[in-house]
Design a protein that fits this description.
12 helices; alpha/beta; Aspartate Aminotransferase, domain 1; 417 residues; Aspartate Aminotransferase, domain 2; 7-stranded mixed beta sheet; single chain; 18% strand
Amino acid sequence: MKKTEVFQAYQDFIMPTYTRQPLIFVKGKGMKLVDIGGRQYLDFFPGWGVSSLGHCHPDVVSAVRDQIDKLIHLPNNYLSVQQAKLAKEIIFWSFDGKVFFSNSGAEANEAAVKLARAYGRGRYEIISFANSFHGRTLAALTMTGQSKYQEGFQPLPEGFKTVAFNDLSAVRKSISERTVGIIVELIQGEGGINIADKDFVVGLRELCDEKKLLLIIDEVQTGMGRTGKMFAYEHYGISPDILTLAKALGGGLPIGAMVAKREIADTLTAGKHATTFGGSPLVCKAALAVFRAIQKEKLLANAANMGNYLKEKVSALAKKYDSIEEVRGMGLMIGIALTIPGKPIVEECVKEGLLINCTHEKVLRLMPALQVTQKQVDKAVGILDRAMQEATMSQGHPPQSIGGCPPKQCGGHQVTS
């Protein structure tokens, strides 16, 4: 199809549920995407973190090719070798428990709600947090602490409360005899890269133990090495009762998982929950390749090291631009909080061949693949620097002079923090 035909087909036949940029990508490899005209882009936000190994990682491609002519789909009332291997691998890296496979993060979170309610035997309330994001299905949407996503879908399901993030006293006050669990993102991605305080998370674990509640940690975006550890909860020295995963787990293929501690996992007995496509041999084989690649290429260490380097480079820009309010993040999950709208900066980056994201209107998100190199970080930050200069000058916020040179000449000036 020609470019104009693709645009027309979207207008005529696809629902307008996304704000789409006029970019048509036809090929990807590693950190690069290629559009229909042959132009290359450096991807620093690969599919909301889905392609955490980059595009078309050779190990994932090889695994899919090996599996696809053997067995693609198998209903879950039969046994699958690949599903068994993947469940064992997930438990090895997480905690002693059992796995339920789904197709997405929202489905994994829905499964967590059902498990919690079944376990609660009359207790059904789930506490979540302001600015959280847990998915688009109705229960996940209700747990999401952002009213803009809920508008037009009322009445929402009952049994959910939202309280302030990083406020343990607010959580304690919200617990009632109906409460069965607490769900938390340790880094709120869609909420603007807000990081949970360690004391807060440790306090949640202690509170759940005290009140016999289930601690559900949503690692749909942070899981699979994004923060420099396989799972973000490892940074906090605690373990959840239920863990939800998706996005990066499949290396680009759709898969989600709910992991529950062994003592509660068998609450969902036959017939209480199910999915048609969850955990197919094909996607499980791909996910196993993701685990292998993370280990073989030492990507946890690279995510930690390059995450620190990226944060340092971006923090240097904060000294140059008053419009950068704060740089926050963990590992390769970086947020740049601005005092000005982020959309023009994203658009300037696209013009120069860099793909990033903006959430909450004023927070730029950078989430490159786990194998990102120093050279790629330098290139991305250089483009971001020029985009910041262009956007801020047009909005009346010129960059600060660094080292005595005029602002207009400081576009490529390197600053160490």
